[in-house]
Structure formats: C-alpha cells, structure tokens
Amino acid sequence: MAGTGYVYCARVGKLVVIEGLDGAGKRTLATGLTAALNAEGRSVASHAFPRYGISVHADLVRDALYGKVGDLSDSVYGMAVLYALDRRGAADEIRKDLEEHDVVLLDRYVASNAAYNAARLHQDENGEFVEWVRALEIDRFGLPVPDLHLLLRVPVEVAAERAAKREQDDDTRTRDLYESDGSLQSRCGIVYDGLARTGWLAPWQVVDGRTDVDFSKLLAPLFTP
Question: Which keywords belong to this entry (predicted)?
C-alpha cells in the first residue's frame, strides 16, 4: 500500500478472528482451538484486543469504560478511533506472525469495533458507521484482512450470566460500561448476526456457544486444497 511505510512480505498463515458478546466464551474457544491446532502439528500465535497493559490506546479505552476520562466514553467515534489505534499498533506484529505461523488467532478484531459502536448508534450492518470502520482500519490503517471470522453466538441472557459469574469469581474482571449494558449487548448481537449474514470483510462461521465444539471441523475449510 503506497504511502503507508509498511513492507509487505509473503503471507503464509491464516488470520482467524473470534467475535461475540462479552461473556460468550471467546477465551475458552481460543484455548480449545489452539490445543486442537497444536495437536495437528500446526503452529499458532494469539492476540487479544484491546491489548490492556500493552497499548496506551487500549489503556485509555479501559479508563474511559470505567469513567476515568471524563466524557470520552460518550463519543462513539472517539472510542472507535482508540480501539482502531490499538490494533494499528499491533499490525506489524500480526503480519510477522502470519509469516511464521500456520494460524494467527485473534480474540476480537475490526468487527468488534463495527458491531459495538454501530449498536451504540442504533445502526445495523448496512449503516454508515460500519463502512466508516472498514475504511479507517482496513483502507487507511492497512490492517490485515481476516481469512475467517468465528462468531460465537449465545443468547444475551447467557452471556450476561457468564459475565456476572466471571466478575464474581475474579475481582480483576469487573464489568465495564459496555458489558453491564444489557440493551447494548442485545443490539450488538443483532449487528454481529448481520455482519455474519453478509460476510463482512471475510467469510463467517457461526458457532453455538452453548454446545460442544468440533474443533477438527471448524477450521477445516482453511486448510482444504
């Protein structure tokens, strides 16, 4: 991409993104997928967004979500830019991992920005905000495009119960402004469904978060000649 300063090398690995509501079980799915891929002899690199404790932009997001940065959290576009800058800061590392590993597995990525903030604006997958996120993160920032999205779908009530239990069991995982807003979570789930239905950015597979996952079948299309 001219003018970005990036040097693009041959891409070997597959970029797989896990998306879903807070409390859907994304971390558990990532752990299971990594173990299954390793058992098949495939190397995996993993990243989770936001990169709290690593990226200044992610830490500003966290502060805003807990009401520590004045009215910053009220700005949908301001928050979206912070999320995007966090990912931009990780882009070179993701590209390097794609050169060196069979799979790069991401817990949240560009679609999270599109889904949550479109939901905050009461827009759907066809709204102007989703297109704005794509133009910002993919076109302007040059982030790698996923090969596959895995949408971990669970009812909003189930996700909320899991998030509440996580909060109860771990005092470092207090629910933030978004996680505690049931209406936002519900609208976000609808946007996620729309993104999956339209194949936004890349193919999507929907995974039922209430049942056991057949890991061997989930990623098989990525490695089929």
Answer: ATP-binding, Kinase, Nucleotide biosynthesis, Nucleotide-binding, Transferase
- 55 occurs within a structural domain: yes
Count of structural domains, the chain: 1
Residue 23 to residue 158: CA distance in whole angstroms? 8
> Per the confidence metrics, is the pTM higher than 0.85?
yes
Q: Which CATH number does the domain housing residue 126 bear? A: 3.40.50.300
Alpha-carbon span 142 to 51, nearest angstrom: 19
Question: Can you list the alpha helix ranges (DSSP code H) found in the chain?
Answer: 26-39, 56-65, 76-100, 110-120, 128-134, 156-169, 182-198, 215-218
Q: Does some domain include residue 210?
A: yes
- Identity at 46, one-letter amino acid code: S
Among 154, 173, 169, 123, smallest CA distance to 19 is for: 154
Residue at 3 is within a domain: no
- Domain hosting 59: range is 14-220
Integer CA distances (angstroms), 30 to 37, 105, 108, 118, in order:
10, 7, 11, 25
Check if the beta carbon of residue 82 is closer than 8 Å to that of residue 141: no
d(CA 77, CA 114): 11
pLDDT tens sequence across 111-162:
999 999 999 999 999 999 999 999 999 999 999 999 999 999 988 887 767 6
**Tens of pLDDT, residues 15-25:** 999 999 988 88
* Residue 41 token pair: 């002899």
